Amino acid sequence: EFEVREKVMLKVSPWKGVIRFSKRGKLNPHYIKPFKILAKVEMLAYRLKLREKLSRVPSTFYVSNLKKCFVDEPLAIPLDEIQIDDKLNFIEEPVEIMDREVKWLKQSRIPIVKVRWNSRRGLGFTWEHEDQMKKKNTLIFSLTLRLRLNL
């Protein structure tokens, strides 16, 4: 499918530390900037020339994780602007709490918050359970509270 010395983009998975209400993150693949193919390893695997930032990641990938790179590819994310872990998960972090609401489910009261993420694809807003966000992201709540008190 690909030729040696061609450039391909590498697929990374979006990952958030909270349960999401929508499936938007799972259905939208993210690709990081082009890498040169060094060799064909197997029938469906290629070895790529990775940048130093990805030195902990093995350099051999299956075709399903690669996408042919064309000029002006709109799906590519600049590698310098994102965080990627050892398993090629794109780590999105909360930036700001935009809004709060309380949803009622029979007799239960469920506080939710609208969170702005550091997403590189479109609008990065989702509604999350407030208690889950507070457990995993206490800093964002204290920053949001300070900003609102200063206004």
UniProtKB/TrEMBL annotation:
Presence of keyword Protein biosynthesis? no
**Is Nucleotidyltransferase there in the keyword field?**
yes
**Recorded GO MF terms:** RNA-directed DNA polymerase activity
Q: Which Pfam families match?
A: SH3_Tf2-1
Task: Cite the Tf2-1-like SH3-like domain residue spans from the record.
Answer: 6-69
Q: What highest taxon heads this organism's lineage? A: Eukaryota
Keyword vocabulary terms for this entry: Nucleotidyltransferase, RNA-directed DNA polymerase, Transferase
Which PANTHER family does the entry mention? CHROMO DOMAIN-CONTAINING PROTEIN (PTHR46148), NUCLEOTIDYLTRANSFERASE, RIBONUCLEASE H (PTHR46148:SF59)
Q: Mind telling me what this protein is named? A: Putative reverse transcriptase domain-containing protein
Q: Supply the source organism for this entry.
A: Tanacetum cinerariifolium (Dalmatian daisy)
Q: What is the lineage of its organism?
A: Eukaryota, Viridiplantae, Streptophyta, Embryophyta, Tracheophyta
